[in-house]
Specification:
Membrane-bound Lytic Murein Transglycosylase D, Chain A; mainly alpha; two-stranded antiparallel sheet; Lysozyme
Length: 369
C-alpha cells in the first residue's frame, strides 16, 4: 500500500510536466541551447583538419609519433578546463603588452604562448627548481639577461622587463639553433644539454631528436596553448567580453630617493592600498623601496597630484624617523658606522641592501635602526 501511495502522485507529476505547454521545450529551443553551450567530444578535439604551424614551422602531422604527442598534450590541456578558462582570462589582461614587446623586437607573436605554459601568466609562479615569474627564469639566467634579482626587487615578476629579457634570450637561441622549436627546447632543458644531444644524435630536426620527456612535452604544450587560445569556440570556450579580465592599464610615476622608503608612502600619495601597489608592481619585495631611481606603476588616473602628495608624505615621514638615519661623512666606513651605533655589520648591510663590497660615499644616508 505504501509503494502505491508514492507512485500515484509521481505519475501525475510526470504527466503534468509533459502535457503542460508552459513547461515543455521544443526541439528548436533545445537545439539552440545545445549550439550555444556545445563542447566538442575529446575525439572531435583531436581531429586536425587543417595544417598547424608554430613560428612559421609546419607541424608534420603525417608522422604518427608527432601526431600522438600532440594529441596527448591537447587532451591533457582540455581535460583541465578551469585552467584553460584562466588562461583565456589572463591572456586578455596581458597579451596586448606581451605582443607589443615581441613586435618591437621583431619576434613571432606565437612566442606569447610560452608564458601561458610556463606560469599560466602568474607573476608569483615558482617551480620546484626555483624558476620564478611569468617566463620562469632561473636566477642565474635572469641576471645574465639583464634582470635585477635581489632582496629588494625581482624583475622576473615584472611582465614588461621579463618579456623583454625572454624575447632577447629566445632570439639568441633561435640564432644559435636555427629554429624556434629548438629554441624552446633549449629554453626548457638548457642550451648546453641540447647542443650535446644534437651532436650525439647527429640531427637538428626537433621532431627527430630524442630529448628528455619533459622537454618533448613542453614544446607540444606550447603548440597546444596556441591551438586552444586561437580557436576557443571550437574547443567549447565561449567567453563573453564581460567574462574577460580587463587589459592591464596604469599610470607610471618616476621616483628617486637617496635612501629606502616605505612602500606605504607611495600608496598614501596615490590614495590606494599597500596591496594595490604590490599587485601593480609584483617585482617589489618586502615593505621598502630601495634607494635609487624607480618607475612605479599605479592605477590609471592616480598620477594626478601624485608628486605633490608623495613629497609631503616623505617629509612627514622623515620627521618621525630622523634618528633612524646616519649621514655618511668623509673617511667613514661601514664597519666604523656599525660600531658607532652598536649594531652588527650584517644588520647594517641588510637594512640598506648593501654587500661587503658595497661602496658608500659622503652624503649617503644609511638606515641604522
Amino acid at each position: 500500500m505504501r509503494h502505491k501511495f508514492l507512485w500515484k502522485p509521481l505519475f501525475i507529476l510526470i504527466v503534468f510536466f509533459f502535457t503542460n505547454p508552459w513547461l515543455s521545450f521544443s526541439a528548436e529551443v533545445l537545439e539552440k541551447i545545445d549550439s550555444q553551450q556545445r563542447i566538442p567530444s575529446l575525439m572531435e578535439s583531436i581531429q586536425f583538419k587543417d595544417d598547424i604551424h608554430y613560428c612559421g614551422i609546419k607541424i608534420p602531422l603525417h608522422r604518427q609519433d608527432v601526431k600522438q604527442r600532440l594529441e596527448k598534450e591537447l587532451l591533457l590541456a582540455l581535460w583541465d578546463r578551469p585552467q584553460v578558462i584562466l588562461w583565456i582570462k589572463r591572456a586578455s589582461k596581458y597579451f596586448l603588452h606581451v605582443e607589443t614587446i615581441l613586435k618591437k623586437q621583431g619576434l613571432p607573436l606565437d612566442l606569447r604562448f610560452v608564458p601561458v605554459v610556463e606560469s599560466a601568466l602568474k607573476p608569483h609562479a615558482k617551480s620546484s627548481k626555483n624558476a620564478v615569474g611569468y617566463w620562469q627564469f632561473l636566477k642565474s639566467t635572469g641576471k645574465e639577461h639583464g634582470l635585477r634579482i635581489d632582496s629588494m626587487i625581482d624583475e622576473r615578476r615584472n611582465i614588461f622587463k621579463s618579456t623583454t629579457a625572454a624575447g632577447k634570450y629566445l632570439k639568441d637561441l633561435e640564432n644559435q639553433f636555427g629554429s624556434y622549436l629548438l629554441a624552446l627546447a633549449a629554453y626548457n632543458m638548457g642550451e648546453y644539454r641540447l647542443k650535446k644531444e644534437i651532436r650525439d644524435q647527429k640531427t637538428q630536426d626537433f621532431f627527430s631528436l630524442y630529448l628528455p620527456l619533459q622537454t618533448q612535452g613542453y614544446v607540444f604544450k606550447v603548440i597546444c596553448a596556441k591551438l586552444i587560445l586561437e580557436n576557443q569556440e571550437f574547443y567549447g570556450f565561449s567567453l563573453k567580453p564581460s567574462d574577460l579580465y580587463p587589459v592591464f592599464t596604469f599610470d607610471k610615476v618616476n621616483l628617486s630617493s637617496d635612501f629606502q622608503i616605505p612602500i606605504t608612502l607611495i600608496a598614501t600619495a596615490a590614495d590606494i592600498s599597500f596591496k594595490k601597489i604590490k599587485d601593480f608592481n609584483p617585482e617589489l619585495r618586502g615593505y621598502y623601496l630601495d634607494r635609487g631611481e624607480h618607475a612605479i606603476l599605479i592605477p590609471k588616473g592616480k598620477a594626478k597630484g601624485f608628486e605633490e602628495h608623495f613629497t609631503t608624505a616623505v617629509k612627514k615621514w622623515e620627521k618621525t624617523i630622523k634618528n633612524r638615519f646616519h649621514v655618511v661623512k668623509r673617511g667613514e666606513s661601514l664597519t666604523g658606522i656599525s660600531k658607532k651605533y652598536r649594531i652588527s655589520l650584517s644588520s647594517l648591510l641588510k637594512l640598506n641592501n648593501l654587500s661587503l663590497k658595497g661602496m658608500i660615499h659622503p652624503g649617503d644616508r644609511l638606515m641604522i635602526k
